[in-house]
Queue: 4 jobs
Job 1
Amino acid sequence: MSRQQRAELDAVLRRPRPEGPRTVEAIRAGFRAMMAQLIVPDGIRTRPALLGDRPAVLVEPAGGAEPGATILYFHGGGFVFGSPETAMPLTANLVVRTGFRAFSLDYRLAPEHPFPAAIDDAVSAYRALLDGGADPAAIAFAGDSAGGGLTVTACLAARDAGLPVPAAIVAFSPGLDMTRTGESVTAKESADPFFTRESLEHTGSMYLAGRDPNHPLLSPATLADLTGFPPMLLQVGTNEVLLDDSTRLAARARAAGVDVILDVTADVPHVFQAYTGALDEADEALDRAALFLTQHTRPRTTTP
């Protein structure tokens, strides 16, 4: 355990930032600048793509992808900011470690496009993969933060629309409760270098646009029926106000008979997996995520 690395990263993340609510434009610009400092591994190639009616970025190993295996990746950003480009440190690391290709979806953002636009786009992208001949047994949903939550809500919406569920779900520090009723929202506020209840509610209100958060597609950690879900890996750090989003979803998954791994790392921040090269735990967590994906995501083979 790299205690010095964790302490140094925490200190960096606590550097002074502008106080008070920021404009959407300022939030988006600040996030782009922060994520541009992170490491994107070598050994990938990218090109623009289209899934449904939304743009995406196709990320593949430079030497070619494992036949048939696909990650559908959803970036983080509170449904208000972020893009496939800001998520590239995570998407590319999964591609390099698994040998799979990944489509990173550029779903619509609030406040211009509030709930349920992101979910609609995610399901449309998944449907496009299926309509193109992809085997659901070889498709995994993965995402971070709000995108981690989208792995769950998109799976709920796809299942309820009669689509086959994907083979697996990997969620990094997912946001899964817009009611903000988890004890960690208060208990972890001083430990979390990123979020406070106030900051979560600032962007959350843009996505909600007046909707009641007591809805399974907004708060699956407390309200969703996860019956029939694929195996899930939830990775989260103890220094997160969103910690209980993962712990409570894992409990619901177990109660529904779903295979679930709750992977909790001590003293690390929100989406710590993005800090490869600066935090040993980031690389170790990505290795575990890649192993999970390769164990559960593969095309079905047919016998003559």
Note: The mean pLDDT is 94.
Job 2
Amino acid sequence: MSDDQDRKPESDPQLADKIKDSARQIWLAGLGAYTKAEEDAGRFFERLVQEGEQLETKTRGVVEKQVRSVEDRVEGVRERATGTWDRLESLFDQRVSGALRRLGIHRREEIGALEQRIAQLEQEMAELRGRKDEEE
């Protein structure tokens, strides 16, 4: 029976050493994998940052180009709208002036010119009366 006990795996000292060595190698492999993963993660993170910076540079140029394009379009629309508004305002003024003239209502400038003419005529009449009084 002693031969049977020697053949059992529990009593084999070489097998126990092999299992310990295997367990230690598995442990060390796990530590190595963890360290490698940490190193790779750091490098991976740095690579992601670099790619992000490159992408940001590319997209910034595209975005700035689009912004300029939109600003140019807005400026064009603004100019057209301003021109249209000016034409509309001028047309409105002409129509209102025409309607007032047809109703016999004169513009402020015309009334001012008439007032000046009346004042001039009154002055001339006063001068003529003054001469006539002197002659008599």
Note: The CA atoms of residues 15 and 21 lie 10 Å apart.
Job 3
Amino acid sequence: MEFSPREDSALFDSRLFTVTSARMPSSWRFFQMEDGSFSLRPESWNVPGFWEAFYDREPWAVASYASEKRKILAASHAHQHDLTESGNNHPGLDSMLRTKVTSQTMWNRGPYRIDVENSNPGVRLGDMYFQDQNNPSVKSHFNFETGRFEGMPPSIERELAGDGGFQAGILKGLRFFGE
């Protein structure tokens, strides 16, 4: 659970909460623990070492977290929309879908840049993409599941793999949308 926009997620005892919906994102699974307790969570978060990688800011883990968070918020948003249409007035009908930006650069080095945009909030999720300004045909969209830019030329991917600024640009882009 996240308890502050600027802080990482944390685990809390479920007895501290009231369940307000029986809906659960389709990617969540039941996991039985050795001590008899259980957990409901996205399957991708059950990978050994996931949380360590997430807190170490490894791009694959941050991207997996971001992807699942989007699914959770989208399901919550849909549920809240259903409640509103049925006559219930729910303040705070909000999600990460609300961030509106035509285009903003998160990182730039030479001809390369990472931009984020969402010109139609509330209708679609935001987008993050990589561009090679020397080659306008190279515009690779970020895959939040894999933590990689789809279609990025392998030579550029290898060149930027160890670039701390590039990795920081990805994280900045994820945070821009509240990830």
Note: The beta strands are 28-32, 38-42, 101-109, 112-118, 127-132, 139-143, 148-149.
Job 4
Amino acid sequence: MPEGATEMGVLYDYFAAPTDELAATAIDGGPVHRFPTVETKSLDPAVVMGQLEELLTGRSYDEISDDPRCGEDVAIEHDGEVLVLTVTDGLRDALAAAGDLDEVAVRWAAIEELDGFDPEVLAEILRDLRSLAAEAKKNGERLYCWACV
């Protein structure tokens, strides 16, 4: 992982849950072992994932950032050091339907926030996220992000 990826020390675990209320229960201890989860670092649900959604859908970043489910909190603890945030349904649906993730990973790695990331590592993360999103969509669930500073 590039130097900048661990500097902030923020963990972002993406997971699927059927409701905001159930997702909020992940605030204590995180979603791993409780919900289907993809563990990441430095991939925040608003800026970095918003730019991923823009790449996948062609929808403008401004429109994505205005989406009421773009990084909105459903639970906060420890003065904002632990959060459960929403992920847009547009990103869930676009990931679930995504084709060639290697090409997407190369374009995604070119954004300023991911400077230094290996596109192959990002492609692997994208494949995991695609599986999570496809399963969530099939089950009528939404995606969330547990963030811990």
Note: The chain has one domain: 3-148.
